Automatic annotation (TrEMBL):
Source taxonomy: Eukaryota, Metazoa, Ecdysozoa, Arthropoda, Hexapoda
Organism, scientific name: Diatraea saccharalis (sugarcane borer)
GO annotation (BP), single: protein secretion
PANTHER family: ENDOPLASMIC RETICULUM PROTEIN ERP29 (PTHR12211), ENDOPLASMIC RETICULUM RESIDENT PROTEIN 29 (PTHR12211:SF0)
Protein's name in the database: Endoplasmic reticulum resident protein 29
The keyword Endoplasmic reticulum is assigned to this record: yes
Domain ERp29 N-terminal: 22-144
Domain of life: Eukaryota
Keywords (A to Z) from UniProt: Endoplasmic reticulum, Signal
Residues annotated as domain Endoplasmic reticulum resident protein 29 C-terminal: 145-238
Cellular component aspect of the GO annotation: endoplasmic reticulum lumen
Pfam annotation, one family: ERp29
Amino acid sequence: MQLFLFLCITLIVPSTYQAAASQGSVELDEYSFDKITGKFEASLIKFDVAFPYGDKHDAFVALAKDAKDVEELLVAEVGVKDYGEKDNEELAKKYGATKDNFPVVKLFVKGKKEPIAFDDSKGFTSDELRRFVKENTGLYLSLPGCVKDLDKLAIKFTKSKLDERKKLLTKTQETLVKLGNKDALSGKIYKTIMEKILEKGDDFIKSENDRVKKLLSGKVSEEKKKELGIRLNILQSFQLFDKNGKQKEEL
């Protein structure tokens, strides 16, 4: 009987430990939470069971890996136990997280008193987590369909005056040639958005953003949904954010 129990523990414990480990994510507790989060411009924290698993955890892990080079952003987890010493239970409750609503994701932004809650009504995916961070911090996190070199040009374009914008459009066209077929669809969207802004002004970003979201809320094919999603992601690259991570009103 003792040998049987030993074998069970040997087999179960490693797999449980592996489920809790997340590459790119830091484990926090009630003692280290404030000390570590306070050193970053933004901290994306998931409150969850001590040994998480499943699609939502996988989505968070994927985001953590993708954000590994974003030095201003901390991606971390608080594992909560509902047995024994009940580690981190009080810390989780402080931010509205309990075993009844796990996992709960909160974004802590330096200078803001209260964290921002992630709304998973559109899905708990790595793409939605990226979008959530980007919209509320202005930090660069590549979204599906976005191209880093073109994102840089889009940001410069948005900040520039008319003459410089025309030069950046030309540079974008030159970049498209270098990128080749792989990013052809995305490249065409960047170029079209720049042309529309030159034609209609900065208000085009908001109106187009609203138009695409409206289309996505209706009945569209999966292929069209994917295309519209890429367009929505690229539109974010043309949006200016203030020092608090909020989109500026003029856009």
